[in-house]
What we know:
The structure holds two protein chains of two kinds. Chain A is of the alpha+beta class. Chain A has one helix and four strands; from the N terminus they run αββββ. The mean pLDDT of chain A is 91. By secondary structure, chain B is α+β, with helices and mostly antiparallel strands. Chain B has one domain. Chain B has helices spanning 5-8, 20-74, and strands at 77-80, 86-91, 116-123, 137-141, 150-153, 157-158, 166-169, 173-181, 191-199. In chain B, the strands form two sheets. Chain B has a five-stranded antiparallel beta sheet, covered by helices on one side. In chain B, strands 6, 7, 8 and 9 form a four-stranded antiparallel beta sheet that branches. In chain B, a hairpin with an 8-residue loop joins β4 and β5 (150-153). The longest helix of chain B is centred in the first third of the chain and has 55 residues, at 20-74. Chain B is rod-shaped.
Amino acid sequence: MTLVETLIVMGLIVILITATLGSIFSMQLSTARVSDHNSAMALVEAKIYDVRAVYYNPPNYPFTTNVVTITNQNEINLNEAGTTFLVPGTLLTKIEPQGTLGHLVTVTATFQTPRLPMTVSLQTIVNKYSGGQQ
Amino acid sequence: MILSDAMASPVRRNRSGVTLVELLVAVAMGVLVVAGAMAFIYYAGYAVSGVTAQTLFNQQAGNSIEFIQSRVRFATSISNDVSGNILTLGFDDNVALDTTSAGFNTNGIPWDDKDHFEQFKFIGVNSTNASDCASNRLVYVANTQSNSTKVLVPSGVRNLPGFKIFTMTNQVIAIIRFGIADNYKTDKYQSIDIQGTGVSLNRVRTNNVLSIIP
């Protein structure tokens, strides 16, 4: 084996190791982001449930003839000691009248996650046929 | 003294092989390469372990909250214990019959009976610290008359700071807050926290919520 062949093999090995480390690092970031996404989605879904639990009696608040917007502050990503949430965020609930269909509820959460802020959104329709209404 | 022709020949023979020094250098380099490969595999293994643990927590937490919410939706009664560690749900097994069971009398409404009860139980030590929660778990009891349970989260369940696991609002809304944390230190800290709400759609008129929880 010549020196050139040895260098080529070593170069290929270095590329392989670098790619493997990069993949693992990327997977770690991805799973951590999925974790934050799950936490954010649970909060958004909780807010959807909150709205669906409200007595549907339009045009009484919050199911009025105008768009109603409600803003809540929330936090996710608890630290190891279990004392502090690391990522703050905002939940924006928008309730829009949709004529005879009822009201369109859109909940959007925006969290300031590291590297890239995360936005999660869910929608539902609430009307007189929704379960649990009078 | 007469030498043989072969021994007397001045021509050198072409010998193949390595010298002792070459062999030692090659062995040393081989040891270095193997040591490097082993160290790489060692740390890569822990890193992948962390990724796997985080993926597992994501699945367990998401699956658990969805499952709890799905059961709460169909419950005819919701209650929690004082510690907030047990959520008890009542269910009507026959919506055509107005039955009497478990201390509840007939009321003329056939769909709000409590024919059987299910429970979600947090078992362990209430704490927010990851290292204290290694053996904490979350289980589901499909019928309180039976001893059989299904484990939803087998370890690492913890409280969120300042909150109980299960909180009730207006007798029809169950607020569920819990976290799952990794107690295996070697692959670094993995965790997830979940804050969800379950609402019973079989609630009676008097329990309709009049405003959105802030």
